[in-house]
UniProtKB/TrEMBL annotation:
<dbReference type="InterPro" id="IPR049383">
    <property type="entry name" value="UbiD-like_N"/>
</dbReference>
<dbReference type="InterPro" id="IPR002830">
    <property type="entry name" value="UbiD"/>
</dbReference>
<feature type="domain" description="3-octaprenyl-4-hydroxybenzoate carboxy-lyase-like Rift-related">
    <location>
        <begin position="135"/>
        <end position="334"/>
    </location>
</feature>
<dbReference type="Pfam" id="PF01977">
    <property type="entry name" value="UbiD"/>
</dbReference>
<dbReference type="Pfam" id="PF20695">
    <property type="entry name" value="UbiD_N"/>
</dbReference>
<feature type="domain" description="3-octaprenyl-4-hydroxybenzoate carboxy-lyase-like N-terminal">
    <location>
        <begin position="23"/>
        <end position="95"/>
    </location>
</feature>
<dbReference type="GO" id="GO:0006744">
    <property type="term" value="P:ubiquinone biosynthetic process"/>
</dbReference>
<dbReference type="InterPro" id="IPR048304">
    <property type="entry name" value="UbiD_Rift_dom"/>
</dbReference>
<comment type="similarity">
    <text>Belongs to the UbiD family.</text>
</comment>
<dbReference type="InterPro" id="IPR049381">
    <property type="entry name" value="UbiD-like_C"/>
</dbReference>
<dbReference type="InterPro" id="IPR022390">
    <property type="entry name" value="HBDC"/>
</dbReference>
<protein>
    <submittedName>
        <fullName>4-hydroxy-3-polyprenylbenzoate decarboxylase</fullName>
    </submittedName>
</protein>
<dbReference type="Pfam" id="PF20696">
    <property type="entry name" value="UbiD_C"/>
</dbReference>
<feature type="domain" description="3-octaprenyl-4-hydroxybenzoate carboxy-lyase-like C-terminal">
    <location>
        <begin position="483"/>
        <end position="576"/>
    </location>
</feature>
<feature type="domain" description="3-octaprenyl-4-hydroxybenzoate carboxy-lyase-like C-terminal">
    <location>
        <begin position="340"/>
        <end position="462"/>
    </location>
</feature>
<dbReference type="GO" id="GO:0005829">
    <property type="term" value="C:cytosol"/>
</dbReference>
<dbReference type="GO" id="GO:0008694">
    <property type="term" value="F:4-hydroxy-3-polyprenylbenzoate decarboxylase activity"/>
</dbReference>
Amino acid sequence: MVTFVDWLLRTFNMAYKNLRHFIDTLEQAGELIRIKTYVDPKLEIAEITDRISKSADGGKALLFENTGYDFPVLINSMGSYKRMCLALGVKELDDVAGEIEQLFKLLSKPKESILDKLALLPKLGQFASWMPKVVSGKGSCQEVVMAQPDLGKLPVMTCWPKDGGPFITLPVIHTKDPLTGTRNVGMYRMQVFEKDMTGMHWHKHKVSAKHFMEYKKLNKRMPVAVVLGGDPVYTYSATAPLPENVDEYMLAGFLRKKKVELVKCISQPEIEVPTDADFVIEGYVEPSEELIWEGPFGDHTGYYSLADWYPKFHVTAITHRKDAVYPSTIVGIPPQEDAWIGKATERIFLAPIKMTLVPEIIDMEMPVEGVFHNLVIAQIKKDYAGQAQKVMNAMWGAGQMMFNKILVVTDEGVKINNYKQLAQYVFQHLNPATDIYLSQGPMDVLDHSCSKMGFGGKMCIDGTRKYEEETDTAYLSVAAPKTLDTAAITQQFPEIKGINSSLLAMDISCILVAVQKSRPFHIRELNEQLYTLPALAGVKMILYVEHTVDVSDLASALWRFCNNLDPKRDSFVINKPATQPGKYIGGIGMDGTLKTRLLDNFERDWPNIIVADDETIRKIDAKWAELGVGPFLSSPSLKYKQQIYGEEAVVQQ
């Protein structure tokens, strides 16, 4: 049945009529489980979903039909490669990129003859059929109008024990530029404070925040509409890294091969929303009003994003379909559903990057351990010296790629989706003293490692084969050891609580070291001491994490490392004199440990990682057999319980 559904979507370009249509498709494909047992939206749904989403291939989509509210909750609906493809109506995500590339080539091809120009007309007709259209009358999203808007009637989830409250986690937020009328559709979490008031968590880099500032200059009230549900393409498009002047519903129309029909809101008629949405929450933001203390929130980084001041959103109307389903998601320690939404973006936007910014790019990967912005791998066709640096500058200047922290550039000599072969190739061609480029720039507001919010270090690792011009002959290449006597090293340095040297046996010249810090500059000094050891000659890179991290769990250790590193501040290059006069052996250590005021002069609060509370874990353990979701799965939070610092969202110092 899966093959038939895929074929049907691809052959007839069938857009989903509404969220129920998508649910039916998931169920026919064997990708949905209905849960009829009562499950509380406060913490319990999140704990069940966390277990399912971390199971093989992302588990199944879950429809909670008994939540104590009038509306069922759909979650993890895009939480696998297969379901992400079903949501977008494609067989493979790369199919979308291929179609975009064909369009670029068609539009950029010289039109020398009248026949060439006529050949373009059918495609222009297709473009027109994808453009959003405002229709008259009411939409199915307005079948029911709440007499008194009350967010308390929706099954809004509280996901994690130290969240500031319940959060709407899949809101498709509509705003307009007050000067141009240009629409923006984005996704920003919304903490519910009252029955008719939430926070509006838009970061300063986001388009809606820019709209807010324009309304503030004009001293005008800002109309806003929030959509939940409808065609899943709307949800994806709201997350897509589009240029500011591109309407997200143009992308949605292209993906679904059918224009998005919009209707005017009933209390905020300046804003239009999709007719087939499940819920519409209408309201306004008053730019002159005092901000509200919003958060904390267990975020996609796997850490709490800490409380801060954000605008208030006042609800003026709530409308919904008669058969509305409340869509939701959770984010936290990866992998979660958002990893697959990110995978779609990685594949879909490869073509625009290639066609407009980086023509030499072949492929791109965003490993789940890097939680999107922290780690990006770019594969290029290399033709000249310095090309990796050219690509670095282009990508860091491209839209949301400006938030990237670690960029690894390699060439056509390796397949980048085979991480073992990729690492072998990169380290084979890497001089850590000369091929790692450190910079600074804008960072994601959620990046807690930066000394200043939203501004911090970046790093590009040039793992391409080198031309003669790129090679510094002052450095010698020394073979790394295949094994280490880790017991001897930990005996000499008792602050080291664990060493993972397993990569050395795979010809990957890198080790991970867990350290219990006790003094300022501890990692810098330890790094210098370790690189004096003859046993570590030829080890190109040492990654340091805090002592609570299990370095034998490579994926988790890399996730912690990428989150906690500010590359410019925390990288320590070693130029070790070789026995040959005038020659050196290069190395680098990187500090991915927790930073504190006392030991690191780090003045910002440091967040805790996200784990479920013991009581919720116990409740779900007891309820599991009733859920009908398959064999028992233990809580993913259990393996991280020993890695938290205190019980609050903020690490206690």
